[in-house]
Amino acid sequence: MKLHKKIFISMLGICLLGLMLLASINLLGVLNQKQTLMSNQAKAEKESHDSILGSVENYAKNFVAETNEMCVKNINAKLGEISKDVTSMKLFLEDKYKNYKLDSSSYEGNSYTIAPGISQESISQELKVIKPSEISFNNILVNDKKNAVFYASQSGFMISNLDMDYSSSYSVDRRERDWYKKAVEKDDIFWTNVYEDLLTEELMVTCSAPVYWPNKKLAGVVSQDIELSSITANVLNQKNENIELLFLLDESLSFIADSNGSQNLSETMGKEKEKKFIELLTKSNKDSENFMEDNLVAGFSKIPNTNWFFGIIFEYSQIKKPAETTKTSIEKLSKQSEKIINDQIAKQIATNIIFLLILSVLVLIISRLISLSITKPLKELEKAAQIVSTGKLEHKIKIKSKDEIGKLSESFNHMTSELKKQIKEVERVTLEKSKVSAELNIASTIQKSMLPNVFPDSPDHKQVDIFALMDPAKEVGGDFYDFFFIGKHNIAFVIADVSGKGVPAALFMVIAKTLIKDRLQGGLSSAKTLMEVNNILCENNGAEMFLTCFVATLDLKTGKLRYSNAGHNRPLIYKKETGFTWLETKPKIVLASFENIKFLDEETTMNKGDSLFLYTDGVTEALNPQNELYSDPRLIETLNKKEIEGKSSKEILHFVLDSITNFVDKAEQSDDITMLAFNIKKLINDNLSEANNSLPYSNNSPPKIGNNPPEKLI
Predict the structure, then answer these.
(1) How far apart are CA 4 and CA 368, in angstroms?
(2) Could you tell me how far CA 530 lies from the centroid of its own chain?
(3) Which stretches of 397-500 are assigned E, i.e. beta strand?
(4) Smaller CB count within 10 Å for the chain: N or C?
(5) Does residue 573 contact residue 606 with C-beta atoms inside 8 Å?
């Protein structure tokens, strides 16, 4: 689609959208007025209905709350009187224990019972204190003289205000009763749950309290049995036309009694109402609360003295009937008002549609004229861009307008000029980079050619199997290895790691390698070689570079390995009896750091079948994607695997390299990896004269390798 058409369609669309928006706002205004009227009407309807329902609900809630409060207060008062009776008996008995005088006479009387297994002698002293025959609990009781009172001592006897058969056949151990144990456990007034008396079949409840000696030791428990009807009769029997049910539940929400004399709530309420109320009661964490659920109006309050629950329930439907009638009348009037408003809105919408059609025609004409005036200079800009795209960057656009299109043409002309400059600069940089890359490739080739890459396999050197490899982290690296024969029976091994990477490290490596080889071939020991090379490298070391180095010479005739370590990783030596283990070395400071450092010559003996494994820190410090090191333990574990037993040095190094590659996975190589290994196939038993004739010295004497090196021969 051409640009002028896009502009035309866009302007037309925007204008039409604006008109539609204007019409929509107008329509929304009308609808909003309707909504406001209807909302106000509905609000008035709801408020009037809610006001009536609110009054009914408030009446119901207040009635439930007031009834609950009155009944709970009545029951709690009676329970409080009984608690006072029990407390009075407790204090009376504790006073007996506190103010007693023992005499030598024995106590006689039959006004008590003894628990099974208790002897008369064990309680005789306490009976002198209490003197059961002198106690009349009825003189203490305030609430009801007929209630049964018991005192059970911790020592095993029991007294009561009832006429009892004090023969041994009636004796039971009251200390095992729930009212006894729970009073002791609570250490305060304790109320039992409701239970049925075995003799009278009446519902009973027991209030008990612990009694103590003056030294706070438990003396016993005093209790009073009360008929439940004497506590609840006046409360549960009250009459009110709105009340459907009054009831009592114990602390565990088990049924106690109700106003209908039922055995459980479901007899009166029905199972669904009972389930609903118990569910509401269980969810509440308050001592008093009212509920309104569906047609159920209910409330409960906790009785403080016993933690029982008193509840009230009645039907709500009859109370709210007048409110429902009023609501129906209001809804009828609302529907009539809504019809009138809808008719007015329909007329307003028809007027808006006619007005919108007229404005749309005007917008169509104006949009066409404006789109043509904008697209003419843009066509010229398009033509110029096509010319420039063919490569004619010298072409200029001639648009003299001062609007954004004119500025765009100026920017286009400036862009073509800058593009020509950038193309020339890119060509220059590309040429320079290709030269650098080529030079680095040459440097890498030169470095690799300086390292031994042809390993001993001639008939003259069948005594040892040697292999080495280096994998630089960059095009050129700082690691190097070397091995060469000194005479016929001695072979030297060198491995080193120069600080840093790239070309500087490679240059430093070339110097160090040349110096070390020159001095070893000149007959110096490993330690003397490291000392001289160190002093030379320290001179004019402006770059402050350094290297770690391990140098060793092996006498293929005797198996003596003489070596010296300049801060390098310890090699691993293989013996058939032990496998690969760390070679004992005493590493000195790195080369090119301080002058006149004395290095140590050390030696060990190698036999047929023994191997030596040299490496740089790029092996053990190789990192995987989780930044974990390959590490020394993993290296020695790899070398001691059964898969490489009896393998050649080349196979061993490639096995280790594969292990490192698998460990590193996709992580970038961070350091040069260099390894050298050799294995002694056999030792030479040539005579000394043959060895002397083979050495390149005028006096035919062999070089002294080890702790007593000869003078330099250069």
Answers:
(1) 9
(2) 56
(3) 464-471, 479-486, 490-498
(4) N
(5) yes
